[in-house]
Amino acid sequence: MVDFFQAIYDWIIGFFGIGNFIKIINSGDYSSFLTYDGFISIIGPLFPIVLVLEVLMALVLRKFKAIDYKISFFSYVLNAFIGRFISIAAIVFCIGLFEKYAIFKTTFTWYWFIYGYIVWEFGHFIYHYLGHKVRLFWCLHSTHHAPQAMNLSVSYAHFFLEGPYADVIRTTVCILLGVNPPMLFVIMFVDGFYGGFIHIGEQLMKDGKLGFLYKYILTPSHHRVHHAKNPLYMDTNFCNLLNIWDRVFGTYQPEKENLSIEYGITREMKPNSFLDSYFGEFACLLKDVYKAPGLKNKFLYIFMPPGWSHTGDHKTATIARNEFLKMEHATIQNEEEPKFNADKSKMVIQE
């Protein structure tokens, strides 16, 4: 029984990430909080604490639905050890392999930190864009988009191989472009913390635009757009904090006041099913590859965007978005045309 309660205690300490914080408190050396590790020990637990507050707020407002946390919870349990260790190994491997090929070297200074973060966002954009545009990578990423509600726990909903895949691309880009490895780990920490925060739900932050910051960075509102399955919103806002690369590549999309967000993925799936969210896209891909005629089509199903079909009846996000924009443009024209004619009639009468 003692071992059981000890295991529960260790799990709680691990989940909230307060082990190092407790060690510093017990040591009595509070100056350690001024070090990098000390700073991490203070900032690290904030995210899980806010997650608990979000759940409590939902309970108070009677808006809590356990089903909204099901996919995220089981993903967290499954990924807690496997994905984390693979990611660390992938990062270390990429640093060792590519550091000698860096185009130049940077130092741990504030101006190189700004450069490093912009480069990191570029790497993040590449990984995230491929995660939506290459079907094999979408199989890894779709678990994160499967939840049909937005809350902080969604940041835990990932297929266990997505983290390593993302870190290989982001780390490789950063190291080849000269980002200092120690600084890279600081950037990863900041990105991880903010990347979790932008999943905050409406219970704690209804608007999610962060005031004037909405114009300069990607906010929870922008990321809610990214998680939407509305045609206008699909495959937009790929960056995490800085929206520079979304603006450069034309994937930036602000939230529209008159368009409510619908969360989830467009494929028909069992509502809030962990197994379907975790393995469903792989099953669909294998089915399409098996039925596809010829080796070329089988290959294309793996690497073309989700929704691509060898029959030519494509249902990709790009096509759905373009069709929506055409319909929206036609609707606006139809609404403006009567008004224009009415104004023209008035002018004739006056003459």
Can you describe what's shown?
The chain starts with a helix and ends with a helix. Helix 2 packs across helix 3, helix 7 crosses helix 8 and helix 8 runs antiparallel to helix 13. The chain is mostly helical and 351 residues long. The longest helix is centred in the C-terminal third of the chain and has 34 residues. The C terminus is likely disordered. The chain folds into two domains: 210 residues, no CATH class; 36 residues. It is built from 15 helices and no strands. The radius of gyration is 24 Å and the shape is globular.
Quick tags:
mainly alpha, 15 helices, 351 residues, 61% helix, 2 domains, disordered C terminus
Q: Report the uncertain regions.
A: 347-351
Number of separate domains: 2
Number of strands: 0
Gap between N and C termini, in Å? 95 Å
Supply Rg: 24 Å
Short description:
This protein has 351 residues and is mostly helical. It contains 15 helices and no strands.
